[in-house]
Amino acid sequence: MIISVASGKGGTGKTTIAVNLALSLKNVQFIDCDVEEPNAHLFLKPRIFERIPAYIPIPEVAEDKCDCCGTCQDVCAFNSIAVLPGGIQKDGTVLIFSHLCHGCGACAYLCPRDAIHEIKKTIGIVEKGFSDGIQFVHGKLNIGEAMSPPLIRQVKQHIDPMKSVIIDAPPGTSCPVIESVKGTDYCILVTEPTPFGLNDLILAVEMLKTVGVPFGIILNRYDIGDDCVDLYARENGIPVLMKIPFDRGIASLYSKGLPIIGYKSEYDSEFKKLPGKINTLIKKAKFDT
Amino acid sequence: MKQIVIISGKGGTGKTVLTASLASLAKEKVMVDCDVDAADLHLLLNPSVKERFEFRSGQTAQLDREKCCECGECIDMCRFDAIGKDFVIDPVSCEGCGLCSRICRYGAVRMEENISGEWFISDTRYGPFVHARLGIAEDNSGKLVSVVRQAAKDIAEKEQKSCILIDGPPGIGCPVIAAITDTDLAVIVTEPTVSGIHDMLRVIDMTGHFQIPARVVINKFDLNLENSEKITEICASRNIEIVGRIPFSAEVSRSLVKAVPFVEYTHDDVTEEIISIWHKMEFIIEEKKSRT
Lengths: 289, 292
Fold this sequence. Notes:
The complex is a heterodimer.
Chain A: E1 2-6, H1 14-23, E2 28-32, H2 40-44, E3 47-61, H3 71-75, E4 81-84, E5 93-96, H4 106-110, E6 116-131, E7 134-141, H5 149-156, E8 164-168, H6 175-181, E9 186-191, H7 195-211, E10 215-220, H8 228-236, E11 240-244, H9 248-256, H10 268-288
Parallel strand pairs in A: 1-8, 1-9, 2-7, 2-8, 9-10, 10-11
Antiparallel strand pairs in A: 3-6, 4-5, 6-7
Chain B: E1 2-7, H1 15-25, E2 29-33, H2 42-45, E3 48-63, H3 73-77, H4 99-103, E4 109-124, E5 127-134, H5 141-158, E6 163-167, H6 174-180, E7 185-190, H7 194-209, E8 214-219, H8 225-237, E9 242-246, H9 251-257, H10 262-265, H11 269-291
Parallel strand pairs in B: 1-6, 1-7, 2-5, 2-6, 7-8, 8-9
Antiparallel strand pairs in B: 3-4, 4-5
């Protein structure tokens, strides 16, 4: 079972839910896909035993073979290649803007002179570790690097299907989130009962419908706002899996990098019940389709 | 004209709440929401949309099953696993590179332009506001950020506004880079939690990488004084001024429910601190102006 935890709006408690859910499970693997701002390691404190650099392929031009025909520039859909044709006095040249490159390989494959080969560009690192029986994997995007989806794909290659897998997704609803939740069996959407929480929840729900992942809601700090999220969930038939009150104790644990499980036992049983609930909902979703 | 961006690294630290209040305090400005895939600022600024634009960006492959001979070359060549074994193209995985359409010997793949969202120029009682909605499951958020920022800049120049207030997205990736490029000041909103500190450090490194002057605001600073002290030390060692320490207040959530900028909702110590932050920011901008 692969469960992803996402939210739309940031700071609603994704990492808190993901970490405590993992701590309530046996034979579990934790995958932090928020490669721009990974935080789960601050709570699980894994011992890292393997560091794997993450690359994307980018083009390199062999100038002796290149005749500046311009094909690579024409086929690049991402404007990451500019060909400056030569003149009488000077040679032409090819400029590569590697930060725009998606690594599709079109330029190398379609170059009529076979002048382009691909080299590896480091965009970040994948780290694997252990934390109290939890297998841990996360990625860290290099500062200044724009594209996180290729790194997220590389983090997800380490998923162990024999385990219960918890995926912590980044905030938002665009490509990095989609890359994180794609292929998971269920997605928990963590939100809060404010107009911001609701607005971003609706966007996240639309996104999950498009990707085809079944989902439910965890309402965090349910007593700080109004009943807008409850009403929305009821009207749209979305299950509310759990409700957590605003609790200064939880906020204080969070601020220190401590989980709820093991420190506030009144929430233990709620987290323990979650996987069972989700399992039932996954079966129901499969039955419905 | 000066451009100020509010960012945070970590989500949910209070970027939009602060931006809306600054919008209420600042004069002669244009506002932009650059969190295009989870935009919220419009909920506080109550805009009336004046102009609506389609955002076209990128392409998606379309397969013509009648022409397709199922040779499978496109499947082998696609780096994004966007073409399934059943020759169905997954539009979400397709990045629109077009390699499949170029190599298909039967001319069975066509590239179609995406409508990836829309963006708006609106009137608010605080001044012009440019915002956007990225299409569901669309990419190119960075490009959309650049589009709304350019529109805001054009308005600011035409109407001779003195500043642009930019509500930034969380993270440090593509849309954030697009949101901070060529700005005059980045205000980083953090919170006194281990995650807040960790993410602030990465954002400070990012603003440094792109040479954007940065200042820090600690939101809910009294929720963990020890961590707030840590943030103060980190900022001192990196020579980054802390322009505000906002106390925790349950009133903030209530102001969201009422959908008004916090400084207009009530007058308490949070309001005082936000006003003081704006005065410091004004001073920083003025100082930069006189220097250039």
